[in-house]
Each structure stands twice: as structure tokens, then as C-alpha cells.
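re the bet — no i am not wrong, look at it urself. input seq straight from the record:
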Amino acid sequence: MSAEHRFEQIADELREQILDGIYPPGKPLPHTRELLARFGVSATTLTRALKILKEEQLVWRVGNRGMVVQKRQPVTVDITPSDLAAKGSGSWEVVCRRANVAGHMVMGVREEPAESDVAQTLRIPSDAPVLKRAQVGMVANWPVCMKEMYYPLDLAESPPATVVRQLTSARPATDEEAAQLKLSRGSWVLTVERVSRDEAGRLVELLRFVANPLRVRLLEEDLPLMPSA
């Protein structure tokens, strides 16, 4: 990492140690002099790193004690199946309002060749073009979930009508997921994979959802207990 972004690397390391309990709630971080010697950076660089942790509400400054680790009471948001299916940012804002917390969604859309697992799931040729919608759900400027939706390019405008398969599971986060969700390495994540058809029976959507299970719950209501005759 370049010297210009060294402060981000320092923030990442301190954050991981806070989340791992090396620096527990109510206890101060090491003294500034110790941190400067440990990381070999200027006071300005260290200040920028600590500013990130303050904005994330991981630490706060206490007179005569320095930067003290905060006791975190993370807000949990409930996501319904319709919330998962939504493509725009409005549904996420509704999710956050239900939890009485401010939130927003970071979105991106692009065309790309389908990776082999995506192509196999959607039953299209390998490297066939797909439309990918990527979303990151933020709660108070903290990333709590990620969603990717893939559509065969020629069917991108055909709305899903039926869920063919949905698998909900939990597993250790990949290094990339841990970095994006600001989790400690090896933390577990909640995952959903859903495949949907349109009214013509064509596979039109692959949805993949990854979330911090301490911040996001899946909520389903009014489900029948017995199958219909």
C-alpha cells in the first residue's frame, strides 16, 4: 500500500484488533507515542487513521485517557423477501427506517462476461454477457450487507415471477467480503442465493446476498404451515 493510503492500513489493523477483543470496550488504545513508534508514521497519518475509527463509532476521545474503545450496541435491520428482490435504493431506505436508523445504498450496474458458476446457474453459455447489479447496504455509514444480481443480457428487462430455488446459509467470510463489510478475518456471514424464472419459464435472475449476521436478519411473515392441496 502506498504511503498516501497508509492511514487506511493502520485503521484496518486497529479495527480488526478492536473487533477481535484485543482492545476491549471501555479500555483505551495504546498511547499515541506507542502507536507512532509501532507504525513508524507521522502524527498526521495516525490522526487520519484514528479519525476513521471515530467516524465508525469504534473509539472516542476521553480526557486524560486518550482514545477509548466504545461499547457497541449495533442496530439490527430486518430484510424481507421483497426487500431482497428490490433493485433500487428506496427499499433499503425503508428497511433502515423500520429499524429507526439512517442508511443508504451504494449501487453499481455494468455488463460483463458471465463467470462459469453464474453461467451454469443461469444455464447460459460460459462468458455470455450478463447485466450485473451490485449493491452495498450502509447503516450509519457502516457496510452491513452486499447484494449482487445477475441477468442474461437479452432477458434483463424480463421481471422475475417465480423463485425456483433459494438457499439460506452461513459460512466464514472470504477475505474480500471481510474487507468490504469491515469484519475480522474468519468472521461468519449470512448468505442467500436465489434463482428466479420469468412468466415464460426462463431463468432470468441469480441473486447473491451476503450480510453481517450481527446487523442483518432475514424476516419472513405469514407463511403457511401446511402445503396447499
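see?? Residues 6-19 form the longest helix (14 residues). told u. also Helices lie at 6-19, 32-39, 43-55, 81-85, 90-98, 116-122, 175-181. so pay up
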